[in-house]
Amino acid sequence: ETGVTQTPRHLVMGMTNKKSLKCEQHLGHNAMYWYKQSAKKPLELMFVYSLEERVENNSVPSRFSPECPNSSHLFLHLHTLQPEDSALYLCASSLSGGTSGANVLTFGAGSRLTVL
Amino acid sequence: GQNIDQPTEMTATEGAIVQINCTYQTSGFNGLFWYQQHAGEAPTFLSYNVLDGLEEKGRFSSFLSRSKGYSYLLLKELQMKDSASYLCAVRDGNYQLIWGAGTKLIIKP
Q1: Is there a contact between B44 and A104 if contact means CB atoms under 8 Å apart?
Q2: Mind listing the pLDDT tens digit of every residue in chain A (116 residues)?
Q3: A84: helix, strand or coil
Q4: Residue of A103, A106, A111, A112 to mutate for B, most B C-beta atoms under 10 A
Q5: Which one, of B95, B23, B10, B8, lies nearest residue B63 by Cα?
Q6: How far, in Å, CA of B97 to CA of A94, rounded?
Q7: Are A41 and B101 in contact (CB < 8 Å)?
Q8: Burial of B33 (0-12, 13-18, 19+ CB in 10 A)
């Protein structure tokens, strides 16, 4: 149990489908993140929410749409994805937006997405 | 541009010692992290260095030299469960995390 739970763990979707990834944390953290992890590549930061406000959007295509309804939940809505979007999507949380002390990230186990 | 370099894959023997290197070129520096990620699992925090020197935590140690832009993770008394990917990340001058591509460590009996 990592404290950050992601569902579903595996998702296969066609390019015309709409699906959502869900992330939940009950660690009392106030910042949440979406990362994309592709094989043999560095983690790519997609979105950051701090105190439920989006503070970072790293040039992510509009087919990815984040939502943070409260400090414990984060969603990634997926629409008309491309095969190159197939990857592991990791959610993480931390106590702050990144400027104090170690600011350790706690990650979920990820959602493995395959786009056909 | 900003860059983190670490070996793609390493192999070591159970009971031995292995050192995983990480070199970085970033705009500013506000700390270096090591995370461990077993296949199909979440990355988990191992260590944080912000000052030069060695930080020891049981079988794992992490070293930092800011002047050389260099860190290493040292794993002693290797166990089969240490087979995993090890991710190096640097927090730059803007407090953005820059990640390496990870080192896959294979432990052989």
Answers
A1: no
A2: 459 999 999 999 988 889 999 999 999 999 999 999 999 899 999 999 987 777 777 789 999 999 999 989 999 999 999 999 999 999 999 987 555 566 899 999 999 999 99
A3: helix
A4: A103
A5: B23
A6: 13
A7: yes
A8: buried
